[in-house]
Design brief:
The protein is mainly α and 311 residues long. It has 11 helices and no strands. The longest helix has 31 residues.
């Protein structure tokens, strides 16, 4: 069991695709709240998006994450599981029960997964946010924009994911695809520690000692709670990341992470960093519950196990 296993990547892909479908509508609401203007609270934002763009507005930009986040989650879960397995083998714990985990191993495996996730996830998040935000009426908030920028605000600047990638590379270079990478590192490395670690320990806590593995219900509950914890605590850096990545559609306001934090704080106060925390936490539960349940059940089906394994 200490060897590299591809099943974790396959199961992560299935879980990732399922979680995108479940979570994208609230992800759109979260992005609009954090980087947009005139949306008020969560319910007001939902009403505004529905009124302006109908139900399809909530699924704007979903095709790219559906294809890419499935691969992204595949890599994250594959890296986490294989790193944890390698650490257990290295420390000579292969023969111990599969539910036996040490905090240090989980912490290191989560951090490795977090760093790897940033390399893959930054361009994915950038494209998703640009597509979600391009109907945002920036001209209302930036009256000093040049006439061309105001005119661009009338119609979408990007025609789809491929056109968005081509436009960013042409106007900002390849480095433009990694706009907000610093904020994403600060969000995802601790974020994945607060994602995988609570999941593993909640699973062990919920599952009775007599059971050989957690039930689907336990996986769903532990996964949902872990997602709510992770996304709730990640909100401040998620706000900064969203603003940095939405920046550049019509104009560039921020020079970097610290400048974005400074400008946001000066204009809107400390509360701005907790904007979207409700929708983040609420969205985190069904998304992560679906992600972990899809992952665990897929892994069970691939391996032909009779119990749901823990990563």
């Amino acid at each position: 069991m200490g060897s590299f296993q591809l099943e974790d990547f396959a199961a992560g892909w299935i879980g990732g695709a399922a979680s995108v479908i479940v979570g994208h509508p609230l992800d759109t609401v979260k992005t609009r709240l954090q980087a947009g203007i005139n949306y008020g609270n969560t319910l007001s934002c939902i009403r505004t998006v529905y009124k302006r763009e109908s139900v399809f507005g909530f699924f704007k930009g979903m095709s790219f994450p559906l294809a890419s986040i499935a691969v992204y989650n595949s890599v994250v879960f594959g890296v986490f599981s294989n790193t944890q397995r390698f650490l257990s083998q290295y420390h000579g714990r292969e023969s111990e029960a599969s539910r036996s985990h040490t905090l240090s191993d989980l912490l290191l495996a989560s951090m490795v997964a977090g760093v790897v996730s940033v390399g893959l996830g930054t361009p994915v998040d950038l494209i998703k946010i640009r597509l979600q935000m391009q109907t945002q009426p920036f001209q209302e908030a930036n009256l000093g924009l040049k006439p061309r920028a105001v005119a661009l605000g009338v119609q979408p600047i990007y025609q789809g994911p491929v056109h968005c990638i081509a436009t960013i590379v042409r106007t900002e270079g390849l480095a433009g695809m990694y706009r907000g990478v610093g904020a994403m590192l600060l969000r995802d490395v601790p974020g994945y520690c607060l994602y995988f670690i609570p999941y593993v320990f909640l699973n062990e806590w919920i599952t009775p000692e007599t059971c050989t593995g957690p039930s689907p219900c336990a996986v769903w509950l532990a996964g949902g709670m872990a997602g709510a914890i992770s996304w709730g605590t990640a909100t401040p850096m998620d706000v900064v990341k969203s603003r940095l990545q939405a920046d550049g559609v019509y104009l560039n306001k921020y020079k970097g992470v610290l400048d974005c934090i400074s400008q946001s704080y000066q204009k809107e106060g400390l509360k701005v960093f907790f904007r979207g925390i409700t929708v983040n936490t609420v969205r985190g539960f069904p998304m992560s519950a679906t992600m972990f349940l899809g992952y665990e059940l897929s892994l069970k089906a691939i391996r032909g196990d009779h119990t749901v394994p823990s990563p």
